[in-house]
Specification:
Layout (H helix, E strand, L loop, with lengths): L2 H8 L21 H9 L6 E5 L37 H6 L2 H10 L8 H11 L3 E6 L5 H4 L7 E3 L2 E8 L5 E3 L4 H6 L12 E5 L13 H7 L2 E5 L20 E6 L15 E5 L2 H12 L2 H14 L1
Parallel strand pairs: 1-2, 1-7, 2-3, 7-8, 8-9
Antiparallel strand pairs: 4-5, 4-6
Helix pairs in contact: 2-9, 5-10
Protein name: NAD-dependent protein deacetylase
Cofactor: Zn(2+)
Function: NAD-dependent protein deacetylase.
């Protein structure tokens, strides 16, 4: 979906719902309580979750773009020509050292999933999760127990890696010792640089991303959490569900289609701290005890 398509898809409820819908009508505005009731009563059984860095910052992982505290504002020590170069594939081929220095800080096992990640795991355990689409490369959904087949890691993952020369596949854990020592991992066959399967600028999205073509038309609820909805093509997915589908935003700010014009009756926005918003939904669902139990097991296992 291109940016112009996204624009058309997002013109909703100000008289039109663009590519994916029709007129607003006079329907009652939904609430978070309505969303919870529909999940609880099994009317929402195919839930798609979209998530960004805002679900992982409570675990201590810095995001990329927050002024002052984001990664891009704190990369001076890497002597980069510009901040984004650390994630550009051409620069990586020229000089992989800065990325692997940063990778030591970002490595998934340095952090623990939080309530938000375990909520997604609980959605899966209860049979409600159709798929999770995440912009994050931290792997915290996997650590919380969400099966890889339920994940579309749109910007790649540390869980697998590939030699940049001979294309030999590696498990992410095989790189851990080198990354923790601050050295560039090398292929055991050709001695080429092994790169985690993270999508750099200049690379194609993983093929699994295009699963959205079948997932989004099937969804009966879309939950969007912790994302600015600014990076394409991921952001356009917010407009790819059917016009009858409810969308729930749990986010620090109104973003994307939730920030434009009049609210749609099917759209609900819980604005503020993401973990607090998810916890409020879990309490309305009556799942808090089960979620606490999941989190306790996860803490003991880590």
């Amino acid at each position: 979906m291109y940016k112009s398509d996204a624009l058309a898809a997002f013109i909703r409820c100000g008289g039109s719902r663009g590519l994916f819908g029709g007129p607003r009508g006079t329907a009652r505005q939904q609430t978070l309580e309505d969303i919870a009731a529909n999940i609880r009563e099994n009317r929402f059984k195919r839930i798609v979750v979209m998530a960004g860095a805002g679900i992982s910052t409570p675990s201590g992982i810095p995001d990329f773009r927050s002024p002052g505290s984001g990664l891009y504002d704190n990369l001076q020590r890497y002597n980069l020509p510009y901040a984004e170069a650390i994630f550009e594939i051409n620069y990586f081929h020229h000089n992989p050292d800065p990325f692997f220095t940063l990778a030591k800080e970002l490595y998934p096992r340095n952090y623990k999933p939080n309530l938000t990640h375990y909520f997604i795991r609980l959605l899966h355990d209860k049979g409600h999760l159709l798929r999770m689409y995440t912009q994050n490369i931290d792997g915290l959904e996997r650590l919380a127990g969400v099966p890889p087949k339920m994940l579309v890691e749109a910007h790649g993952t540390f869980a697998t890696a590939t030699c940049t020369v001979c294309r030999r596949d590696y498990k992410g854990e095989e790189l851990r010792n080198d990354i923790m020592k601050g050295t560039v991992p090398r292929c055991s066959v050709c001695k080429g640089v092994i790169k985690p399967d993270i999508v750099f600028f200049g690379e194609e999205l993983p093929r699994q991303f295009f699963t959205y073509l079948t997932d989004f038309p099937m969804a009966d609820l879309l939950i969007i959490m912790g994302t600015s909805l600014e990076v394409e093509p991921f952001a356009s997915l917010a407009g790819a569900v059917r016009s009858s589908v409810s969308r729930l935003l749990i986010n620090r700010d109104l973003v994307g289609p939730f920030a434009w014009g009049s609210p749609c009756p099917n759209d609900v926005a819980e604005v503020g701290d993401v973990v607090s918003g998810v916890k409020k939904l879990v309490e309305l669902l009556g799942w808090m005890q089960e979620l606490d139990a999941l989190m306790s097991v996860g803490t003991e296992a880590s």
